[in-house]
Design brief:
The complex is a heterodimer of chains A (about 140) and B (about 140). Chain A has about 140 residues and is an alpha+beta fold. Chain A has one domain (about 5-135): Pnp Oxidase, Chain A (Roll). Helices cover about 25% and strands about 40% of the residues of chain A. Chain A has a 6-stranded antiparallel β-barrel with strand order 1-2-3-6-5-4, surrounded by 4 helices. In chain A, strand 1 (about 15-20) and strand 2 form a beta hairpin. In chain A, helix 3 (about 90-95) packs antiparallel against helix 4. Chain B has about 140 residues and is an alpha+beta fold. Chain B has 4 helices and 8 strands. Chain B has helices spanning about 5-10, 15-25, 65-70, 125-130, and strands at about 30-35, 40-50, 55-60, 75-80, 90-95, 100, 105-115, 115-120. Chain B has an 8-stranded antiparallel beta sheet. The interface of A and B includes residues 30 and 138 of A.
Chain lengths: ~140, ~140
Amino acid sequence: MPEPDVVEFIGRHNQVFLLTHRDDGWPTGYPMVGNSRDGGVEFSTYRASAKVARVVREGHASCLVVPRDGSGDDRCLWIAGAAGIRDDTEASAARTSEPGAAGLAVPADIAAKAALRMHEGKRCLMRVEIRATRWIGWKPPTR
Amino acid sequence: MEAADAMSTRQNISMSRQEAEQFLASQDRVILVANSGDGPPLGTPARARFESGTLVVSVPEADPIVAALAEDARACCIAEQFPSYYEIKSVIVHGTSRPCEPVHHGEASFTVPLEQLTTFDFGRLPEAGEVTRPRP
């Protein structure tokens, strides 16, 4: 399991950039809403999306978890580990309908639609295990 | 709950090149992403400015991403605003980085040209109009 401060930080901040590689090998990133769960970070996304195919192909991914401006946090967190999708659709649907971490509020109708798509199997939960971490200063120097 | 979801419904929520450049010019920070050997990419926040059609990004010179970009110059820069769901905007730049004169002592700076752009603006979702449209 990751260190308690890592779990606590991810639990408070759901603005997460999922980092992987494009098919041509370029690094790329996706702004996502992430949720801390059982030592990993989980994302709800469309099963047919390019990011799912890329992460499944590679079997690992990294993430940068960043604080919202005004939160008072002065660092962000890079994590990396094994990654893939969860196929326990019923549990995934339940999780998708849960409130997210403090931070971005997803409108109720959007969350309900996402839960329905999860139940239908069109969406899935993608998960990145936390196996490596690095804290990084968040506030850059002034211009 | 991300751009691909919105795009999966075949709604065009992308920005024009001009809008993307205006957005980049309004940002002072991006997420800089680089390859790291056979492992997953590195990512770090970088101070940024956009001038003459090119992003200039700066990170502490000790950041591991500096060595990573020396090995593989392919870079991804993500600029995003995230105040509320329907105000989410993002511009994702892919470009070949080049080291340049550091903006500040103790930093490493790179230019990243806008070779490829991916953009989205959740304010263009039809549902956003229902939320943000002024009531009569």
